[in-house]
Design a protein that fits this description.
The protein is of the alpha/beta class. The protein has one domain: Nucleoside phosphorylase domain (Rossmann fold, 3-Layer(aba) Sandwich), CATH 3.40.50.1580. It is 29% helix and 24% strand. The protein contains six helices and nine strands; from the N terminus they run αββββαββαβαβαβα. Strands 5-8-7-6-9 form a five-stranded mixed β-barrel. α3 links the parallel β6 and β7. The chain binds hypoxanthine (HPA).
């Protein structure tokens, strides 16, 4: 159990209502946060720790755009061995300290020849191919319904706002479908071909459990993928984690601009 009282104490006088989850190599956004307060996950009793390179394991709380935000640097992946319910606990802890809107970022492989490495994709929907679900087990009706509706999981109005801002900045932001796999291996070429047929535009190893838990808890979601590579078999060179991080860094500059613009307009109040 995550110690909510301790979490609230560490936040002190900060009252963020927007949380941002930063993906692999996308930690740069946290540097743009003004008057930052840093909280190590390790200082919140019961909070899980991160184990992946490029994921810091702390949150930065402060001002971005005209909003107060809680920026999570480091998330929890199924491939690290976490039970998916751990991800729901983290999202529910965010809700308990006042978060009402969640901006999710991730690094993803492209399945769409038009979506090149280094570019961004606004997630309009997902396919949960992980075989797991953060809501498996008893349902707490105080948090949300047993069978949550996913028809507007990636909030239409928030997407509209984000697309308008991207256009203004001339940053390409096509919408696409995100496919989640459990990982940790990258896909085979046959899997990539199959996922394209299934209707996915990008594939990655995160986000979906967070979105499911957030929708269940009544938190609004918007999510953007930084495309770091083409899926296996779509380009001639093999994938490395370094390549992934490098392209994520390129995309992260545009992402920082967009999210900052977004938070100037969308104060969720
Ligand atoms: N596959 C799965 N996850 C990823 C990829 C990929 O090609 N790139 C970045 N995360």
């Amino acid at each position: 159990m995550i110690d909510i009282k301790r979490f609230k104490n560490l936040l002190a006088d900060k009252t963020p209502d927007t949380a941002i989850i930063l993906g692999s190599g996308l930690g740069g956004l946290a540097a743009a946060v003004g008057s930052p307060l840093t909280i190590d996950y390790a200082d919140i009793d019961g909070f899980p720790r991160t184990t992946v390179a490029g994921h810091a394991g702390k949150m930065t709380v402060g001002r971005l755009g005209s909003a107060e935000v809680l920026c999570m640097q480091g998330r929890f992946h199924l491939y690290e061995g976490y039970r998916p319910q751990v991800i729901a606990e983290v999202v529910q802890a965010l809700k308990a300290v006042g978060i009402r809107q969640l901006i999710i970022t991730n690094a993803a492989g492209s399945l769409n020849p038009d979506f090149a490495p280094g570019s961004l994709m606004l997630i309009k929907d997902h396919i949960n191919f992980s075989g797991q679900n953060p809501l498996t087990g008893a349902n707490d009706d105080n948090i949300g319904p047993r069978f949550p509706d996913m028809s507007n999981a990636y909030d239409r109005d928030l997407r509209q706002t984000m697309k308008r801002l991207a256009e203004k900045r001339r940053i390409p932001l096509p919408e696409g479908v995100y496919m989640m796999v459990a990982g940790p291996n990258f896909e085979t070429a046959a899997e990539i071909r199959a996922f394209r047929i299934l209707g996915a535009d990008a594939v990655g190893m995160s986000t979906v459990p967070e979105v499911i838990a957030a929708i269940h808890a009544g938190i609004k979601v918007i999510a953007v993928s930084a495309i770091t590579n083409f899926g296996t078999g779509m380009q001639s060179t093999p994938l490395s984690h370094e390549e992934t991080l490098d392209n994520a860094r390129r995309a992260s500059e545009n992402l920082t601009t967009l999210i900052t613009d977004f938070l100037k307009e969308n104060r969720n109040d």
